[in-house]
Each structure stands twice: as C-alpha cells, then as structure tokens.
Design a protein that fits this description.
Order of helices and strands: EEEEH
Helix content: 10-25%
Distance between the termini: 46 Å
Largest sheet: 4 strands, mixed
Radius of gyration: 13 Å
Number of helices: 1
Number of domains: 1
Length: 59
Amino acid sequence: MKSAHWIQRTHLFRPDEYICSACDASCKKPYKVCPSCGTTMKKAKYDSSWVDEAEGFYT
C-alpha cells in the first residue's frame, strides 16, 4: 500500500485547497485517504504560492 501527502495551497481571496501528491486531485480539506485515488495520506506540506498572488496586485 503506497502513501502520499497533501499539499496545502493557500489563496488570498479563496479558501485553502489541498492537493494530493499522488494524483493531483484537489479537495477542500485534508482527508486521511484521498477520495480520488484512495491513497493513504501521511501529512500536509505547505505551499506558499499565495505570495505570488499577492505580488501580482502590487506590480
């Protein structure tokens, strides 16, 4: 049985989303098992891409 992790992507004006590292499915919360591919999840890793969104407003 393989395992993966959630990638937590934070946005400025939208709720956080969690992306499966195995199948790239997007969910609203970090489940213990990915609803798309059925892979067991270990933990979430934070993705700071929201900084790029904020920078776009100031340029």
